[in-house]
């Protein structure tokens, strides 16, 4: 009978406790190092999301480049792809940056008769103030102040304004502070609104003339408090008369102090 050649058995590897312990030790060290690296990258991504986006774009670009060609790309090709990915990531990060807050709106002073003045704001003569947004109502009130001769007119309303929506200097040089209340017919300006404004208009904003302008009406307690504190109240009808030129400016109701 023909003899069958059998494959020689390879000698098995003997179990080495020292090598096995070293292998598992290196594996544990690698896992700990990888976990610390992932944790550090996560913290860096929270603090610097822009660079996280850049790094992600770079990794995606390298992965796409390796998938297109099976052969190993050259160092020059990798450098070009990395440069393009970095440029795209930087452009995306710059577009995502927050824009700086807008500067306060300044209304130029009136230089002549009202008919000859050209203002960047819509002319507030006989307009429907109730149809305006709160910001538009403040701008329209500032336009009225500039139209009647005030200088250094600014719209400063917003978060943390402490009740001052429009500030200006009257034609006779007094500091004017105006609070604008765009209320509906069913919502009147109450005494609490006047008390909050009265607590800041003179002490914080150093107003010589304090005015509250509303598209609605004032309650009786609010009018009584305003009279005690020297605050001028302009309701919806008074605002319409002021804008149409049928009534004097609000600061005219507060006489200026005569020089000693």
TrEMBL record:
Restriction endonuclease type IV Mrr domain: residues covered: 131-242
Keywords: Endonuclease, Hydrolase, Membrane, Nuclease, Transmembrane, Transmembrane helix
GO BP: any one term: DNA restriction-modification system
Pfam families: Mrr_cat (PF04471)
Transmembrane segments: 21-42, 48-65
Molecular function GO labels: DNA binding; restriction endodeoxyribonuclease activity
Disordered: annotated span: 89-122
Source taxon at top rank: Bacteria
Protein name in the entry: Restriction endonuclease
């Amino acid at each position: 009978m023909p003899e069958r050649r059998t494959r020689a058995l390879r000698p098995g590897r003997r179990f080495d406790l020292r090598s096995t312990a070293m292998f598992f030790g290196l594996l544990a060290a690698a896992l700990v190092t990888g976990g610390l690296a992932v944790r550090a990258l996560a913290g860096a991504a929270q603090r610097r999301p822009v660079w996280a986006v850049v790094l992600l774009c770079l990794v995606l670009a390298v992965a796409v480049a390796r998938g297109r060609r099976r052969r190993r790309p050259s160092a020059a090709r990798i450098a070009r792809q990395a440069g393009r990915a970095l440029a795209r990531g930087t452009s995306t990060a710059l577009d995502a940056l927050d824009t700086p807050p807008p500067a306060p709106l300044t209304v130029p002073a009136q230089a002549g008769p009202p008919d000859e003045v050209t203002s960047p704001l819509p002319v507030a003569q006989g307009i429907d103030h109730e149809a305006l947004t709160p910001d538009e109502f403040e701008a329209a009130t500032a336009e009225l102040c500039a139209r009647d001769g005030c200088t250094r007119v600014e719209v400063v309303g917003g978060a943390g304004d402490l009740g001052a929506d429009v500030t200006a200097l009257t034609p006779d040089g007094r500091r004017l502070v105006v609070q604008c209340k765009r209320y509906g017919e069913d919502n009147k300006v109450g005494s609490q609104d006047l008390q909050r404004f009265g607590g800041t208009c003179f002490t914080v904003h150093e107003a010589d003339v304090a005015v509250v302008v509303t598209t609605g009406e004032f309650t009786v307690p609010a009018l009584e408090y305003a009279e005690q504190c020297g605050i001028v109240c302009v309701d919806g009808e008074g605002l319409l008369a002021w804008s149409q030129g049928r009534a004097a400016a609000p600061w005219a109701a507060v006489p200026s102090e005569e020089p000693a």
